[in-house]
Amino acid sequence: MGRYIDDILQPGEKVLYSTNAHWIFYGPAVAAWIVVVALLVMSRMTTTDGIILLCLLASAAVALAALYWTVKAWFHRWTTETDVTNLRVVHKAGFIKRRTFEMSLDKVESVDVNQTILGRILNYGDVTVRGVGEGAETIKMIASPLDFRNHITAR
Fold first, then answer.
1. 49 and 12 share a domain?
2. What is the domain extent for residue 120?
């Protein structure tokens, strides 16, 4: 399976910049895996059979949730593409149910970047692309949002 942008490029169109969903999507999964490890360590630190069993059962339940969140984050990053070509901005999300957003660069009115403090530190944020007569589209939690904006606004 190739990249979506490679399948839809027009003659003479070339990709100037590509970005993806930021790795922060793995945050809930990482936190859950840390809890799993903490519960396993707690089960080894006690000698009471009931507490050992409770810790092991809790760690198994949290591990299932962590596995789900890990796969979900990976799948989201794998099926999301955000690109700027010399003619347009293209954003695609989804695999079976696909949602795409395309806007011609000459129709872009403004590009707004919204970053939290953590987003500034880790270089991710939300980008809202407003088009003349086309409305606005917000792309959530992408990596390097300022570079993405600069490639849209640079002419």
1. no
2. 4-21+81-153
Confidence band, pLDDT 50/70/90 cuts, at residue 155: low
Q: Which of 39, 57, 75 corresponds to the end of one domain? A: 75
Q: Write the DSSP symbol of residue 26.
A: G
Q: Which string of DSSP letters, residue by residue, matches 139-153?
A: EEEEESHHHHHHHHH
Helices (H), the chain: 4-8, 27-45, 49-78, 117-122, 145-153
- Asked if 22 and 80 count as a contact pair (C-beta separation under 8 A), the reply is no
pTM: 0.81
Q: How many structural domains are present in the chain?
A: 2
SS3 content of the chain, % helix, strand, coil (to 5): 50, 30, 20
Residues 31 and 14 in one domain: no
Q: How far apart, in whole angstroms, are the C-alpha atoms of residue 138 and residue 107?
A: 16
